[in-house]
La-related protein
Amino acid sequence: MNNQILDLLEFYFGDSNLSRDQWLRTRVCNHPKRYIELKKLLTFNKVQRLRARFQDLQVAVENSNKLELDQTGVYVRRKIPFDTNIDFTRRVVYLENVSQDETIETIKEKLSRFGKVTFVELEWFQVSRQNKGFSFVEFETEEMANKCIETINHEQKKLLESKEEGQVNEGELEPNLKSKSIHDFSLICYSKSTWLEQKEQLEKAMELKYNPFSERNSSVFKIDKLKSHVNRNVLKEFFDWISDGNVKFIQIEKNQTDSAIVRLSENVSAQYILEEAQEHLQRIQEKEGACFVLVEQELQEWLKQSQIDRDNYKRLGYRGKKKH
């Protein structure tokens, strides 16, 4: 248990956690000598689950190369002060098209070949408990992150080329190359800085699409500038995710803009759908694309055409049965 306590305390005071934990960072940085009361750590959930006592925390800190106690043994701090000016985004990589069977532990294990992984962020669907297909991974240094990006993209490029040439047998691949996408496409890896830039570009493109119809509830949305590989299954998975499985109908219009119309089974907050979509649409959409609510005239025209299409489908289907 002593090693578990030590690892936990060093994680709490590590760069990765302090860059995210505002409560702890504020208290550490506001103290003149960067100390915090050791007993405060006894209130942390993970410390309580270990059933650690105050004396256990003292022993762990005494055995640490990164932490130290004051003369009274009541306060603890880092030996090397936390630098608030470090840009931690340079240590973080973004993984897109992560396999659904991956977990925080497996991602950390597989990427540890590039260096020490200090943090893995992986979100999950509430119902299926499968991951959402993307992850943020933080390394101890920027160099490790760059090595990860360069190596993974090189491996995935080789894998994709081999698949296209029919020269690959997945059963013979190295474990680190078995990075199958949830959309049957290769794993993509780039820096969090690049991800933030793409997100900002997408938000700017979508701002023009918000007014005024994002203030209402709606069930019909249009998406422009889809990537060439996107089909109905990809769109359904994406919108089932952000609408809690409420997708009723998807119509892809393969024209100059490669757009699609998604209809949900019930009216939902358009603002919520647009905010969720804008954060992750870069996975299925070109940079200049957008997702927006159909305006009344467009909505009525689409509903009218959809009814005509359904009537034609039923009529043709009925005739087909009669011929047989």
Q: What stands out?
A: The radius of gyration is 25 Å. The chain has three domains: 2-78, 88-192, 211-293.
